[in-house]
Amino acid sequence: MNDQYQQLAQFYDSFVGKNRNYPEIATELSEIIGKDRDLLDIGIGTGIIVEYLLQIQPLYKITGIDNSESLLEQARKRLGQKVDLYYQSVSELDIAQKFDVAYSRGGAWTLVNDKSETMLASHIFSSADIQQSFDCVAKHLQEGGRLIISSSNAYGDNVVELDNDIIHKRVATTEFIENECYALLDYRFYQNDDLLAQQTLKLRLLSYPTFTNMLEQAGFVEQAINPGKCYIYSKK
Ligand SMILES: C[S@@+](CC[C@H](N)C(=O)[O-])C[C@H]1O[C@@H](n2cnc3c(N)ncnc32)[C@H](O)[C@@H]1O
User: Fold this and answer.
1) From atom 17 of ligand 1, which residue's Cα is the shortest distance away?
2) What is the whole-number distance in angstroms between the Cα of residue 1 and the centre of ligand 1?
3) Using a 6 Å cutoff on CB, does residue 89 contact ligand 1?
4) Shortest-distance Cα residue to atom 20 of ligand 1
5) 113: CA distance to ligand 1 center in Å?
6) Are 64 and 39 in contact (CB under 8 A)?
7) What integer pLDDT is reported at residue 4 of this predicted model?
8) Which domains does the chain have, with CATH numbers?
9) Which atom of ligand 1 is nearest to the CA of 89?
10) Nearest Cα to 182, choosing from 173, 192, 195?
11) What pLDDT shows up at residue 88?
C-alpha cells in the first residue's frame, strides 16, 4: 500500500499537537457517539484521538485501521492492547465484526470548505475505490449504525514553530489532473534552514452532490450536519 505519510511520520504528533485541540475534538466526538460502544476509527494515524476518547469513556471498544504502516506503528506503541489495530485500507475493509459507529477524523476522507462549497477530500483517488470504501463501511455497520466524517481546517497554507527550533511549512494548491480535482499539500520541515523532510500529500476533491450520491448508493442517509465540525450519516 502507498504510505503517503512515511516522511511526515516522525513529526506527525508534534505538528498536529500544535495545530489542533484534540481533547476538544474527542469530547465533541464522544457527545455524538453517545451510548454506543463499538467504534471503528477509519485512518487512526498515531492514535491520538483514540487516547483521548478512552480517557473520556474507558468502555469504548475501538478498532482502528490505517494504510500507513509508519503511523500505525506509533498507534501500536501509544495504545498497546487497548484497541484492535489493522493495517488495512478502508476500500478493502474486511474485519469479522459490525460496529455501532464508524468515524473518519481527518482520516481516509475528511470534509473541507472551498470558498462556500463543502468538498470531500479523499486519500483514495478513483471514484470506484471511493465508492467501494463507502460500501465496505456500510457492510461493517449495524443496521442504523452511523458514519461520522469530520471537517478539517488542514487545507490552507501555514507555518508552525515546533520544538527544537523545527519549523513546519505547509503550502496547499489545487490542481486538475485528467479532469479530476486534487488538493496538493506540500509539507516541509526545516531546522536552522536545513530541510529535514518533505512530503506532498495528494487528496481527491469531490463536490457535495457527488459524494452525497455515492454515500446514498452505499445505503447511507444524511442525518445531521454540524457546520464546520462534521457530517453524520446513518445506515438504512
Ligand atoms: C491526517 S491523518 C489523521 C490521523 C488521525 N485520524 C488523527 O486525527 O490524527 C490521515 C490518516 O488517514 C489514513 N488513511 C489514508 N487513506 C486511508 C485508507 N484508504 N484507509 C485507511 N486509512 C487511510 C492515513 O494513513 C493517515 O493515518
Assistant:
1) 108
2) 13
3) yes
4) 89
5) 19
6) no
7) 85
8) 9-152+207-235 (3.40.50.150)
9) 20
10) 173
11) 98
CA 213, distance to chain mean position in Å, is 20
Cα 90 to ligand 1 centroid, rounded to whole Å: 10
pLDDT band at 211 (very low <50, low <70, confident <90, very high): very high
Give me the helix-helix angle, 69-79 and 48-56, nearest 10°: 30
- pTM, two decimals, is 0.96
Q: How far apart are CA 170 and CA 173, in angstroms?
A: 10
pLDDT at 115 over 80: no
Ligand 1 atom closest to the Cα of residue 12 is 9
> Distance (Å, rounded) from C-alpha 158 to C-alpha 5?
18
Residue 2: the pLDDT is: 78
Q: What is the pLDDT of residues 34-76, one digit of tens each?
A: 999 999 999 999 999 999 999 999 999 999 999 999 999 999 9
Residue whose C-alpha cell reads 481516509 in the numeric block: 108
Q: What average pLDDT is seen over the chain?
A: 94
CA neighbor of 43 nearest in space, from 12, 15, 11: 12
